Amino acid sequence: MTSMSTTTTAASGTATALAREFAAVLPETCVITDEVGLRSYECDGLTGFRQVPAVVVLPRDTEEVAACVRICARHRVPFVARGAGTGLSGGALPVVDGVVISLQKLRRILEIDVENRRAVLEPGVFNLDISRAAGPHGLYYAPDPSSQQVCTIGGNVAENSGGAHCLKYGFTTNHVLEMEVVLADGSVVTLGGPTAEQAGPDLRGVFLGSEGTLGICTKVTVRLLRKPEAVRTVLADFPSVEAAGETVGAIVDAAIVPAAVEMMDSLAMEAAEAAVGAGYTVESPSALIIELDGPAEECDEQFAEITRICEEHGSTRIHVADSADERARVWKGRKAAFAAVGRISPDYIVQDGVVPRTRLAEVLAQIATMGSEVGLRVANVFHAGDGNLHPLVLYSESAGEHDKAEDLSSRIAELCVELGGSLSGEHGIGADKACSMGRMFTDDDLAVMQRVRTGFDAAGLCNPGKIFPTPRLCGERPGPFRPHPLEEAGVISRL
Amino acid sequence: MTSTPTTGPAGPGPDFTSQRGENAPAPERTDALAAASHGSFDDHHPPARELLDDCVHCGFCLPTCPTYALWGEEMDSPRGRIYLMEMAEKGEIPLEGAFTTHIDRCLGCMACVTACPSGVQYDRLLEATRPQIERHVPRSRADRLFREAIFTLFPYRRRLRAASLGGALYQKLRPKRMDALLAKLPKRFERLVAMESLLPPVSVRDAFARTPAVTPARTTSEHPARRGRVGMLTGCVQDVFFHQVNLATTRVLAAEGYDVVAPREQACCGALGLHAGREEESIRRAKELIAVFEQADVDVIAVNVAGCGSSMKEYGELLADDPAWKDRAEEFSAKVRDVSEVLADALAESRAPRHRVDATVVYHDACHLGHAQKIRQQPRDVLRSVPGVELVELPEAEICCGSAGIYNMLQPEAAGDLGRRKADNIRGTGADLLVTANPGCLLQIRKYLEGDLPMLHPIQLVDASIRGVRPPGM
Predict the structure, then answer these.
(1) Are residues A302 and A325 in the same domain?
(2) Please, which of A34, A43, A223, B63 could form a disulfide with A50 given CB 3.0 to 4.6 Å?
(3) Do B118 and A39 touch (CB under 8 A)?
(4) Is the ipTM of this complex over 0.85?
């Protein structure tokens, strides 16, 4: 965590007036205006970006969300929706003098429709709780971000979140049927429908992954899948990151679609092993977690094939996780890896980029070189199957390495674009990578996106400053205080 | 600038005689210095910078935090509380006010420690923060009196016994209309009402009975040798309100071949005070208990109360500053085991045959056993050693029942919501019996289960099985 944050120099009069109006539609305990409370909301999972909001509100149902948004609209005050605040791109970073609308009081599972394999949820429901509720019926919710125990379905909708098993099952957008959305003027609309195929333009698809810039989702209907008959989880060690990368290519070339193919390097394994004790070979330069699921016969056949491919590529150890317990441990280690890196480094930035699968080995080699050039360690843990990288840049805030790390992290994302990939696989652009959007899209592309956005929110009140590059954000970003060079030189002074 | 020599409360050497009450003047705070180093905290063990830095703000702790589960507010989550500690440590916010409110609302259940992938030691952060609040934040008169009342009653067996007499009489004479009358009391009496409702059915005979000072190991021709000499903590609340649990513990340990020693001179272990930030008091009690058990010359100290065991295992850290006591405390802590640990070790060569008890049993992990001591498997293994027992798991097992030491008396509203939630989850399992290894949990859950299920300490079930009798209440 980092030091001093910017405090609001807000027209506190406006904040008071707003708070009074919120208090008329919400119970007193659901409106936060004290400094300590407000500062608790100044950042999400990306702590390098901080901004204290003017007011935080915690509505309890759609009506209350809509009422809060109407108040914001009337005062032309920007607002940011927030789930569990675990995002890694600063998507829930508050706006100067703006309002944070927390959806953590909308946490009911409204319906598990076993027959039609659907669940109706409020946005604050934790991702894992959907599968927990559906489990007794032999069903589960497929997208499984690493933070699934805490990230919310509303946040998943905003970021179009992925996860290890998206290789076979697709992202959030492939699993959301219908949404109830509060638009920027406070009106409530329904996007999509109860069945997968709807007529007309796919507004549901437009909203998914819009990072809170088009409105606030207050209800979601998701698809549930039947639990597979068999699951096989293999842990394969490799003598180099390149060998593991090539193995991934060979598996895909063999026309096998595993449920998941994850890669971890030794740094990431060291951290995860310390946290969970999953049974990784920490000394191994890299390892793949390969999971197969489906009918038992198919799994067995593919398992034999995959073992052969791993051996051909020089795998030093192939271990099958036998029991459900051991499988759970292997995954727990993988999913805890980001946060576990906190054990081996005081601070870190999680990057999220995509490269074509064929260039995995190449990009990993380049990242290693870039890291050693600036003297920072980079750990790798990622969804290898779809080329979605998560390099973790390790640094020390107190040693003054923040800027260097931030710069390296941005350059890694931009490298992904140069290699024909994408700036973000699943964490979103948020505040973090808005400035890099120009590397991936032309001005025309961005202008079209803006027109879509203003079609939903003409006044630009929904989560402004995210996704799209703005001069303010790219010029100066909220973060550790630094004196102006002229100030340091004694030429000017602060009052 | 001159510096004040020592700001810590205790000088070196034994300190049995320290008479300073909890409300005595706080250690001198050299404000200029403190501001430079620890912000709003004084420099006697403030939450350590390195421990605060361990938090990476990932949020994995949120779903298991009881107050976050209730309210969904960032300030009342582990991540949020660490953020507040960090702000206070930088001197950006004062201890008085919102900071104290949110730290007071923490149950100290340590579910977040279990959930944290980064290895944040929230337990140590909280234990460093609470005494700072006790030293520097003046409490309202009513709050102060209520807390004092708790700490003048609960840690003292004799006073508890006297109170239990009154309690037994009260329960006999309690008018039927009492609930209605209590419900009418203004909100400012809610803590007293909460205290009243936790009062268990008291047996005067149990309350005044004593755990035998020595229970010799049961040896047979087959097992002529004793396994060892176990010292036993009898506890304060445990011995008065759950005396049968202590008796069951001595019987089971003896049956498994241990000599059991329960020194008469032992008093409260200080856990209740330690978890509430009453550092001095708990240090004094820790020293007393160490001295008592040194005299007893035992191999292992067995504890059947999760909260006490957890504190006793930390005496080494609690007394780390005191050169005269550091080693003695570490030696003591190294001997402390939860009774389920002792029994699980003995299972491989169990000497006491179990009789069948047909029951579907739900085991509730007490926070200070599961989260604080990471003891989850041993009690389950011990319960499974009873033929006929089918163990079922509890949904939301990681979330506290709301007891949390004295929390259910200090924060009755939140504790009530958590108690009802736990009771609903327990009923949902369809079990015939609830077992849990902490008197606080038993009192709290009993209140919300409203007699739907019999409740026991695991050792009572094992005891009944060894003796071939029906478990109490079943």
Answers:
(1) yes
(2) A43
(3) no
(4) yes
